[in-house]
Each structure stands twice: as C-alpha cells, then as structure tokens.
C-alpha cells in the first residue's frame, strides 16, 4: 500500500468518525428539545386546570382570597417563565402555592366531597405525574447529551461542531425543594 492510500483511509475514517459524533450530538439535542416541549405541554395543561380548581374552591372558601391571589400570581409567573432555570424557579413557587390551596380545601369537608373538586384534583394529580415523567425523561436526555459532549474524542470536536455549552437540567434549587416538602400551616 502506498502512503497516499493510507492517508486517504485515515482521512475517510476521521470524516466518518466526525459524522458519527455530529449525528449523535444532533440526535440528543433534538431529543432534549422534544423532551422540553413535552414538559411545557404538561405544564400548560396544569395551568389551564388551575382556574377551574380555584373557582371550585372559591365557592366554598370565599374568605380565603389571599390564597387565591397567590395561586393566580404564581400561575402567571410560571406561564411567563422563559428557559429551564426560570421555569424551574417559577415551578417551585407555584408548587408551594398549590399546597396552600389544597390545605384550604382540606378544611372544607363539603368541598372535599364535591365530585367537581375530586375530578379536578384527579386531573391535576395525573398531570403532575406526567410532568414528573417528562422531567425525568428530559433530564435523562440532558445527562446523555452533556456526557456525550464531554467524553473523548467527542469533546475535542464538539465545540468545532457547534455544541459549545451543556444543557441545563430542570430541577428545583435547594430552597425550593425544602419549601415544597414543608407542610403548610392553615389557620382560621
């Protein structure tokens, strides 16, 4: 074999390896975008259910206007959030206000027995489960993308191929996690 053929084979192998790396990064990038879209669809579904829930609870607990205002404000903030980090922050605040709303509902046995309230609560629970599943899937794809971008030899070429930054995980910060896990105090 001549030196020219060996050089040609090496060049072809390098181009093929670059194409495989690029295609893998593009595939994971697209999966992350799709997974984020799934999260936003489920979040929108939940945000659309909240006014119905608030109105149902309002009928039983009209004097709890502060809770209703907080839920509404948190919903608007979450709807208007842009990007992964801002959405995660808004979601933590929203989840905390939703705990307050459900705590108010606990104080009204007639409300808890209402079929409309039970149906809304079931819809929200189902949506929360879908949000968590979508979030886990998104974070898994982000983990795979970030790992692939950092491992050898892809890390050498990732920047040249246009993949310069890691993707953000969708997670609550420590303060929000602690706030969501604390029980809500309800006083009358």
Please give a structural write-up.
- The protein has 188 residues and is mainly α.
- It has one domain (3-181): de novo design (two linked rop proteins).
- The chain is built from 7 helices and no strands.
- It has helices at 3-60, 65-80, 83-106, 109-113, 115-150, 154-158, 174-181.
- Helix 1 (3-60) runs antiparallel to helix 2 and helix 2 packs antiparallel against helix 3 (83-106).
- The protein is rod-shaped.
- The protein starts with a helix and ends in a 7-residue tail after the last helix.
- Total of helices: 7
Outline type: rod-shaped
- Please give the CATH class: Mainly Alpha
Q: How many domains comprise the coordinates?
A: 1
Major sheet characteristics: none
Task: Give the structural class.
Answer: mainly alpha
Compute the average pLDDT: 84
CATH superfamily annotation? LemA-like domain
Strand content: under 5%
Order of SSEs = HHHHHHH
CATH topology category name: de novo design (two linked rop proteins)
Q: Could you tell me the radius of gyration in angstroms?
A: 24 Å
What is the straight-line distance between the termini?
90 Å
Number of strands: 0
What's the quaternary structure here?
Answer: single chain
Secondary structure layout:
Elements: H1 3-60, H2 65-80, H3 83-106, H4 109-113, H5 115-150, H6 154-158, H7 174-181
What is this entry, summarized?
This protein is mostly helical and 188 residues long.
What descriptive keywords fit this protein?
single chain; 188 residues; mainly alpha; de novo design (two linked rop proteins); 7 helices; 81% helix; rod-shaped; disordered C terminus
């Amino acid at each position: 074999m001549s030196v020219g053929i060996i050089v040609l084979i090496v060049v072809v192998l390098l181009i093929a390896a670059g194409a495989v790396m690029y295609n893998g990064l593009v595939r994971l990038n697209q999966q992350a975008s799709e997974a984020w879209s799934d999260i936003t669809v489920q979040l929108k579904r939940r945000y659309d259910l909240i006014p119905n829930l608030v109105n149902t609870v309002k009928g039983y607990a009209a004097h709890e206007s502060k809770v209703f205002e907080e839920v509404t404000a948190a919903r608007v903030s979450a709807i208007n959030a842009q990007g992964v980090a801002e959405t995660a922050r808004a979601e933590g605040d929203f989840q905390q206000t939703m705990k307050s709303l459900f705590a108010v509902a606990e104080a009204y046995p007639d409300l808890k027995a209402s079929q409309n309230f039970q149906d809304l609560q079931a819809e929200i629970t189902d949506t929360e489960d879908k949000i968590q599943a979508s979030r886990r899937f998104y974070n898994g794809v982000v983990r795979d993308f970030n790992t692939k971008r950092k491992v050898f030899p892809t890390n050498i070429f990732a920047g040249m191929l246009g993949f310069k930054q890691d993707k953000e995980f969708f997670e609550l910060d420590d303060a929000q996690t602690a706030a969501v896990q604390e029980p809500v105090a309800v006083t009358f």
